[in-house]
Amino acid sequence: MRKIVKVWIALLLILGITLPVLSTKAKAEDAYYQEPYRDQYHYSAQQNWLNDPNGLIKYDGVYHMFYQYNPYGNQWGNMTWGHATSTDLVHWKEQPVAIPESDDNAWVDFWMKTKDDAKPVHYIGRPTTNWDAGNPNGKRYIFSGSVILDKDNVAGFGKNTLIAYYTSTYQVAVRDDDYSKDSWGNYLGVREVQEQNMAYSTDGGKTFTKYNHQNPVIPVTQVPTSDAGNFRDPKVVYDEANKQWVMPLVSGQEVDIFTSTNLKDWTYQSAIKREHDVGNGVWECPDLIPMKVKGTNQTKWVLSISVQQGAPAGGSGMQYFIGNFDGKTFIPETKDTMKNPQWLDYGEDFYAGVTFGNTPGRTIMLGWMSNWSYVGEQKTSPWHGEMTLPRELSLEKQGDSYVLKQQPVGEVDDTLSQGTISLGDRKINATSKIYKTSQINNFSGTQYKVSADFSWKDKKKPNRFGFNLRESEDGSKYITVGYDPRSQLVYIDRTTDGENISRSNSKVKLEGDPTNVKLTVYVDTSSIEVFVNDGEKVLTQVVYPNPDHPLDSKKLSFFASNGKVAITHAIASHFKSIWEK
Ligand code: FRU
User: Fold this and answer.
1) Which CATH number do you get for residue 449?
2) Ligand 1 center to residue 460 CA distance, Å?
3) Does residue 150 have an active-site annotation?
4) What is this structure's pTM?
């Protein structure tokens, strides 16, 4: 009996000690995803920095999203592949790091002539990611790349192995061939080196083994343009017609195409170069996407790339080109195709988008919702950076050209919508040259979808109309998503939302001379995605409204100025949070 009492006392003591510890831990966990600017249905890491999505793939009913991640901080650095999984493309569960930065100290020793060298120079020394700190640390970053499913064991790691291709990035000392002053050759400085590596996973993407037996599978010495520091982002896709794997990657301002049949040996085949001056930054994160033209049996290849500078809204953005692929070369549709890039998005924040592998019949793209030119201004904590909604792409022929359309994947509405609320048909008559609003009384919030058709007559053409979103209680602060029928521009204006910024760069011109437009906006705590006419054009924008009281900015209204607009099919739905337990 005494023994039993003792056991009970011991148990109570243990519980007394552990329960408070557990509940403090639970409280700390609960605090995540509740921060004032944390998007509630766009993916972000619980803590720390993320950028590009990498290695998007569906395997065994699970979608895998790997991404550029810094496990140690809320700024870019220590680049690693983070990992999250989902069964519906909407609810993501963060997983442990999948590919950590390399720490193998392997000594570097090769000669190479880049485009800026008169003759080859010697790359020799310990690789490092922190040269500025003085002492090379032996590390290499894991930059962007892709994952494929090796169903048939082509590579020899086993059936259904997931194989990752990524860029290994480091800096190393370079020296010349004059040994008179230094027995290693004269020190010329430090250079960035980028090479393509591979790693494989036999546990469904949880862990990856670096294939150092053959890494790098594409060494820097194989870079056709000799741009050793900008040779990155391999995206491997299957070419059904030629029964081979194709790897586009970027090199400066061109895409180089490599092919392989064993997934280990890669042959350089061709390059496709920039032929225009729109979007003049370095190219990044290419994708080569075979797509059926809607309503036909014809396949076209879409070459998409991210351009670091010069996009329509300023800074970074994404372009695409349509063409064919003959097994070696991307052949643009016409001789002018490469001269006239089309843009995937006209907001400031759609970048590094790539498509999922192994989703037959569906082309699903996910992007990083940011922009290198102002990413430092985004000051969220303890996380930094989030993904856009996954978008279903479709390719349509319009006249002589092909156009990509985008819609959030159906799973977004299906799993998140809490029911559709009608906002009622209405007309706004702002004939007295003034700006007039029409308050929506039965709907407000910070995470929802809203959509409406707007139409007008030429005679009473308004000079602006649309939605005021995330409006403060007193009506003084709001974000505008509108259309100006005179300039034919759909635009986002965040200059009135209480943030201390003057930018209102996100706009896109509609073709023809429309007399109606449909605007659908996915509003989240700190972002909006605008789909115009069911995804003909898209604008993605990060926003930090009403910094003092972000969650009080919930009201929603229509507005028009200097004319008359009719609003029909106006609907809205509150969205659930993807973080709810
Ligand atoms: C694009 C990018 C890639 C690179 C990665 C580094 O945003 O610059 O080209 O691989 O980010 O984090």
Assistant:
1) 2.60.120.560
2) 48
3) no
4) 0.94
